[in-house]
Amino acid sequence: MTDHTGHEDAQVQPTLPPPSIPEGAEAKAEAVAPERLIAAPDQVSQQRISEEIAEAHAEHERRVAAGERPARPTLLDFPAYRSSILRHPTKNPRLVDPETIELTSPAFGQRDVAAIEADLTLQHRGEPLGERIVVTGRIVDSWGRPVRNQLVEVWQANAAGRYIHQRDQHPAPLDPNFTGAGRTITDDDGWYRFITIKPGPYPWRNHVNAWRPAHIHFSLFGTAFTQRIITQMYFPGDPLFPLDPIYNSIPDQRDRDRLIATYDHDLTEPEFMLGYRWDIVLDGPNATWREPEGGEH
Length: 297
Hints:
By secondary structure, this protein is an alpha+beta fold. The protein has one domain: Protocatechuate 3,4-Dioxygenase, subunit A (Sandwich). 12% of the residues lie in helices and 18% in strands. It is built from five helices and eleven strands. Strands 1, 4, 9, 10 and 11 form a five-stranded mixed sheet that branches. A hairpin with a 5-residue loop joins β5 (202-204) and β6 (210-212). The longest helix has 20 residues, at 46-65. The two termini are 24 Å apart.
């Protein structure tokens, strides 16, 4: 597994599912720094953002045609993603003793990973609102070999597009029966499986009328703390794809396509839930895009 490359997009990154919504949480949330404090200062139009996306993609294609080889699959200084310039590292990484770091491996939490944690619809007394789905796939290396016993964590917005996070204060309802976080361990063939609710799109303050496509965050741990990677899974046919600066900070369409799950009718259960298949490749030319630490959304 490799270090992160790309942009972070997370409202919350739990190594354990976050607690249930406390009583009065919405009333107390204003005490925490709201989303407006990290809004882009210029607040340009969507048209201008789309023009900047097109310009960046055209420049990337020109360089590739001229024989340049991109250093990473993601454009870090991506003008359309306003806050990316503030979020990505500007200094050299801090040197640490690798042997010291590798003395311990990731702890999966304060307890063993229970099977019920992979079903995000069973974590509360009532059923959550929204479209129930199952998401499953294999985690493999560049040779197609399964990555066994891999800790996989997910977190997401609810069906209304809202996270259980005090900084998320846009006018969409919280669901008292949906926390939006789960985890599982891959089996001997590298398979993972989650049952959840399809998340809704949500607004963010990158520019005027900015909306993020519906997505689920994935975190994967290797055999050491230095091997964590974070990525996002999107849903097919989302009309927000061409408008989203984070999604389009990946200049190659083939790389962007690897983030989109495939609807699988064989996974779909009659009168119960729709099925999506999404495989994750950890390295090599077909590697799934991943994010660095230190960002939002």
